[in-house]
Amino acid sequence: MRQVITITGLGTPSFQSGVENLKRMLLMFANSFPEDKLNAWQHTEFQTWPAIECYTRYFTEKRLAPQEPEIEFEPMVDPHSVLRGLAGSDFFHGRDNHVEYRELSINPSNIRRYC
Question: Which pTM value belongs to this model?
Answer without folding.
Answer: 0.66
